């Protein structure tokens, strides 16, 4: 539904409305303004709703305008989700050791919308990419991996800390921002030739993801990409991954 109120154009799109008022854009819930958007958009525009579907804009002057409008608005909706995710992550100084700025994703999990946005962004990226294995790293990769695996119709393979898995395992050691550790995977959980995505909440030095990649590649799995919610770029984990693609949603918050 579309309505003109004074100099405001209101587009009702599923549960979100867009208002243009005094040359400022706002998202509204019913008639009350909830969020002011800061980025510039073309004068008349569309919005991707919760389903990710792009709604058709009105008053487009040319095919070219229309194409750039779709791109701008899809990007804005994506940015909106990213900023919601970023603001839902809490940062705790000096945990677990002095000098560490701990990125706490438990607050993201308390916000169902931001948590869903996180999963949706990963699923949108990997849908149709023929991925049969989602390998999640203990512990926080166990939170984000399974819903992605279910949405993609892939299996979830836990990469566990030592002595947790009951069957025959292969293991890899790695160094951390604070300490060293080891991860293990059940023999037979994956087959040579499968296409895998490695998921974790965060990349710091990249040691954990590199160990996960080594484990999978030792048994002939093709690791297509690694995906994390957060990257700490100053720790150069991306460089440690070398040519292996890395997809992240937010830089350190
Ligand atoms: O890029 P890196 O330097 O390897 O660090 C990243 C890893 O560190 C954190 O896990 P942590 O080892 O603290 O284990 P936990 O999730 O079991 O607490 C984080 O969840 C990643 O798995
Ligand atoms: N700064 C950090 N915050 C949360 N998890 C981490 N793992 C390694 N470094 C971390």
UniProtKB/TrEMBL annotation:
Coiled coil: none
Record GO terms (molecular function): adenine phosphoribosyltransferase activity
Main location: cytoplasm
Catalysed transformations (reactions): AMP + diphosphate = 5-phospho-alpha-D-ribose 1-diphosphate + adenine
Domain annotation Phosphoribosyltransferase: ranges: 112-244
Pathway given in the UniProt record: Purine metabolism; AMP biosynthesis via salvage pathway; AMP from adenine: step 1/1
EC number of the protein: 2.4.2.7
Stated family: Belongs to the purine/pyrimidine phosphoribosyltransferase family.
Descriptive protein name: adenine phosphoribosyltransferase
């Amino acid at each position: 539904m579309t309505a003109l109120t004074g100099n405001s154009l209101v587009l009702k799109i599923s549960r979100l409305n867009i208002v243009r008022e005094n040359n400022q854009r706002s998202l509204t819930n019913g008639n009350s303004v909830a969020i002011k958007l800061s980025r510039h958009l073309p004068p008349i525009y569309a919005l991707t709703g919760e389903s990710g579907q792009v709604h058709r804009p009105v008053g487009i002057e040319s095919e070219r305008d229309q194409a750039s409008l779709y791109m701008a608005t899809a990007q804005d909706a994506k940015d909106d989700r990213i900023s919601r995710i970023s603001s839902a992550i809490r940062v705790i100084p000096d945990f677990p050791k002095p000098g560490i700025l701990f990125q706490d994703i438990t607050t993201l999990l308390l916000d169902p919308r931001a948590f869903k946005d996180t999963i949706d962004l990963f699923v949108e990226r990997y849908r149709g990419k023929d991925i049969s294995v989602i390998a999640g790293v203990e512990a926080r990769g166990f939170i984000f991996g399974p819903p992605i695996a279910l949405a993609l119709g892939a299996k979830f393979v836990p990469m566990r800390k030592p002595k947790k898995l009951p069957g025959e395992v292969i293991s890899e050691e790695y160094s951390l921002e604070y300490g060293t550790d080891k991860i293990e995977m059940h023999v037979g959980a994956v087959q040579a030739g499968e296409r895998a995505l490695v998921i974790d909440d965060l990349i710091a030095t990249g040691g954990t993801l590199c160990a996960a990649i080594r484990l999978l590649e030792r048994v002939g799995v093709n690791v297509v990409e690694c995906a994390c919610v957060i990257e700490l770029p100053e720790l150069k984990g991306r460089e440690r991954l070398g040519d292996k693609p890395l997809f992240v949603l937010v830089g350190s918050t």
